[in-house]
Amino acid sequence: MAFKIGYLLPTREAVMEGHHEARPLLDLAQKAESLGYDSLWVGDSLFARPRHEPLILLSAVAALTRRVTLGTAVLLPALRNPVVLAHQIATLDRIAEGRLVLGVGIAADVPNIRAEFLAAGVPFEGRVGRMLEGLRLARALWAGKKVDWQGRWHVKDAVLGPTPEREGGPPIWIGGMVEAALERVGKHFDGWFPNGPDAASFAAGWRKIGGVARAAGRDPNAITGAVYLTLAIDDDAEAADKKLNAYLESYYGPLFAAVRRRQASYAGPSAGAALWLKGFLAAGASHLVLRFAGDHDRHLELLARLKSALAQDPQ
Q: Strand ranges (DSSP E) for the chain?
């Protein structure tokens, strides 16, 4: 069973707990690589869910690792000027020597994220169009040729340097479960990166993306199916459930129950986690990005063992 497994660094959790130091996060990154994880990921937020700035932190992770893919889960491009972002991404991809994946999202329509956009001086309305145009502009700049652009941004005779390690820039993955999001993936993006709610929903979305890609003249096999999953592993299923609820409540506040229904999550023993993960692999996912509900060292070791067991399972 060919698949990859990634680990979300707990940047948000660290800040929530008053631990602003970066070194413990870098230590976890190195541990994950040593345990055989395939990728390392960081989230993005200014004030809605404060955490370390993702591109700067990934630069440090890139310098301390050699093998793992590095990615954003997910970055909010609409918050940033795309010319500046293109320069930052190109530089980071050079530091990472081509190991970067850009996971992007449009941002949920909730009050604290609207306030975040307001604080950054970016209109919340129109954020989807702003993101899509900004990413097109970034890709044009990554070609390393003269760019003229007349749209939301105005660029004349501009040449970006350095260019990214990989020609055309890093792969761009995007989430979303609604019809428009699936259409965007099939037509324009390198990967699909949703966060729920279950394997059946993933399978249905993945079939839709394949059909859209074929209709657009693209090879569906060139698109990566990834999924963002949250786990709390404990032999006592009730204790695991309480841990997951407490974690999500501390992370999302009063919305945690709705988040749990909407985002794919598992609470229970290791054997059940293996079956749950196999469901997403059977649904078409080839890259599982895992967020742990606390106990990071223990979870890292447990899931590394599960990865080995799943890889040896012919089913």
A: 4-8, 39-42, 69-72, 100-104, 147-150, 154-158, 172-174, 191-192, 224-233, 265-268, 287-292
Q: What is the pLDDT of residues 160-179, one digit of tens each?
A: 999 999 999 999 999 999 99
CB contact at 8 A, 54 and 27: no
Which residues fall within 8 angstroms of residue 143, CB to CB, at 6 or more apart? 163, 168
Q: Which of 64, 19, 9 is nearest to 42 (CA)?
A: 9
Domains by residue range for the chain, with CATH: 176-315 (3.20.20.30)
CA distance to 36, 70, 186, 213, 217, per residue, from 207 (Å): 30, 27, 10, 10, 16
Q: Give the total residue count for the chain.
A: 315
Can you tell me the distance from the alpha carbon of 233 to that of 240, in angstroms, rounded to the nearest whole number? Answer: 6
d(CA 202, CA 280): 7
Q: Which residues on adjacent β-strands are paired with residue 232?
A: 267
pTM: 0.97
- Looking up tokens 């010319």 gives 83
CA distance 116 to 274: 37
- Phi-psi bin for 222: left (phi > 0), alpha (psi -120 to 50), beta? alpha
Q: Is the pLDDT of residue 100 over 80?
A: yes
CA 203 from centre of chain = 19
Q: What is the pLDDT of residues 66-98, one digit of tens each?
A: 999 999 999 999 999 999 999 999 999 999 999
Does residue 301 sit in helix, strand or coil? helix
